[in-house]
Design goal:
322 residues; alpha/beta
Length: 322
């Protein structure tokens, strides 16, 4: 067992964690970043990225994360290939344990463990990811301009995705397994009033259908939950919008979480309910969930953490001076 100590400890290696590391390293914090179970975050499973500022051409998600990681290391971040399994946030330095028994201590802690989209769990869904099946209309809707698209779900996320997709398509279908939506009434009113959205009630997705050359999504097979009838909905793009799961189980009981399980932070900051602990990226953001916004909050977390340490050091100097 080895103990690693640092002024700034970061968990998570997506855009939020790596941006925090870059800013922390440049501020002389000598950060240690524990990469977690999915180094690079969700962008490692994203192919074409067309909305990250600074690149006129389409770039690949894994390439972008490799570049961010190289930049973080170049300015002095130490990357650890480990997964944290337990935390102690009762006192500073905060103490975290990796799955191999190594100990990580940090004067401040930045949590950037992200969130994962919920999927239907179908074999065809897995096979068609990146070939027409997505969990982010804001990320991928642009690729389906003028094409038929479908959204699966019935909550706020699904309705918002369907409304957003009307910016790119005049043929949007919302597929919902029940006969009523769970979304807020104001969103439902907008959905029902939109002329380019149709709703299929009581339909359960049973298969994503591929075809063409190269193979891409051509339809979504659904089963009527009342009659049992099977039908295929023509679609070039299928967006699974049944929610996200923030990676916060590790912090339950240690930090305040909101009702959806996201880490609660002070408005306009990344400060959590434990002084010296900060959260950034999708683990605290359930609204925007974009790589660029995650990177922005990563910057905020590093700056908040740096100011916290500076304020602590000033107080200690004042006490020492009498």
């Amino acid at each position: 067992m080895t103990t690693y100590s640092t002024r700034m400890l970061i968990i998570g290696s997506g855009p939020a964690g790596l941006s925090a590391a870059i800013y922390g390293a440049r501020a002389g914090m000598k950060p240690i970043l524990v990469q977690g179970i999915q180094p690079g975050g969700q962008l490692m499973t994203t192919t074409d990225v067309e909305n990250y500022p600074g690149f006129r051409d389409v770039i690949q998600g894994p390439w972008l994360m490799d570049e961010m990681q190289a930049q973080a290391e170049h300015v002095g971040t130490v990357l650890m290939y480990d997964t944290i399994v337990s935390v102690d946030l009762k006192a500073r330095p905060f103490r975290l344990i990796g799955d191999g028994g190594d100990v990580y201590e940090g004067d401040v802690l930045i949590i950037a463990t992200g969130a994962q989209a919920k999927w239907l769990g179908l074999d065809s869904e897995e096979a068609m990811k990146g070939k027409g099946v997505s969990a982010c209309a804001t990320c991928d809707g642009f690729f389906f301009r003028g094409k038929k698209v479908a959204v699966i779900g019935g909550g706020n996320t699904a309705v918002e995705e369907a409304l957003y997709l009307t910016n790119h398509s005049n043929d949007v279908t919302l597929i919902h397994r029940r006969d009523t939506l769970r979304a807020e009434k104001i969103l439902q009113d907008r959905l029902f009033a939109h002329p380019n959205i149709k709703i299929l009630w009581n339909k359960e997705v049973v298969r994503f259908v591929g075809g063409g050359a190269p193979e891409g999504l051509v339809g979504i097979e659904v089963k009527d939950r009342v009659t049992g009838d099977i039908a295929t909905v023509a679609a070039d793009g299928g967006f699974v919008a049944i929610g996200h799961s923030p990676a916060t189980a590790l912090f339950d009981g240690h930090l305040a979480l909101d009702r959806d399980g996201y880490i609660a932070v002070e408005a306009g900051s990344t400060r959590t309910t434990v002084p010296g602990v900060f959260a950034c990226g999708d683990v605290m953001d359930k609204i925007y969930r974009q790589a660029v916004t995650a990177a922005g909050t990563g910057c905020m977390a590093a700056l908040d953490a740096e100011r916290f340490i500076a304020a602590e050091e000033f107080r200690h100097m004042a006490v020492a001076a009498g």
